[in-house]
């Protein structure tokens, strides 16, 4: 990962551990203290946007795709930092026009993500953004959506990666930038 400058380590330190949430035995990582701190949020957005830049610092992507819903929080300002557009990837039934849809398995069932069919142009290079990479199902489904639009996935940028889960394996060859691995 490209070093976005001072402040990232301090920003990541604001992530609060909440034991036994949402159920006993789970250690939840609460990002709301980070989001509430302007300098911390600015450092994280800069680091995520760096995943969409080339070695010369110029953007190498045409769009940022943010996955519902916390990917919106980080993806939209990353798109602004890169000077490119933002595309929301939504849960089924939330977008008003013609969509592409991809369903994927969850531990407890199935989920479906959608993107507007005209959100991306063939050949667009895209950066996928979310808060957490866990099992990789959401990212893999979003890669499929981008490819259905004819776009090329440049990479994935996440705030946190749960290193004990197979997210990177599920994602495959798509480059992943994780600001923090837990």
From TrEMBL:
GO molecular function, one term: adenine phosphoribosyltransferase activity
Keyword Acyltransferase assigned: no
Source organism of the structure: Nocardioides agri
HAMAP family named among the record's database cross-references: Aden_phosphoribosyltr (MF_00004)
Domain Phosphoribosyltransferase, chain residue ranges per copy: 37-161
Quaternary context: Homodimer.
PANTHER family: ADENINE PHOSPHORIBOSYLTRANSFERASE (PTHR32315)
Superkingdom per UniProt: Bacteria
Catalytic reaction equation(s): AMP + diphosphate = 5-phospho-alpha-D-ribose 1-diphosphate + adenine
Any Pfam family: Pribosyltran
Name of protein: Adenine phosphoribosyltransferase
Role: Catalyzes a salvage reaction resulting in the formation of AMP, that is energically less costly than de novo synthesis.
SUPFAM superfamilies (UniProt xref): PRTase-like
